[in-house]
Amino acid sequence: MTGIQKILTRPQQENPALRLLIIFGLILLLQIPLSQWWMG
Description:
Number of helices: 2
Distance between the termini: 26 Å
Largest sheet: none
Keywords: Membrane, Transmembrane, Transmembrane helix
Helix content: over 70%
């Protein structure tokens, strides 16, 4: 959880679109194993 918090609390010098891409990537990576476990 600390890694995600670091990404979310990073200074605004980064591109906000890049931050959204990272967050969406993390959500998708978490959803794939969860959905497989749920269906399995």
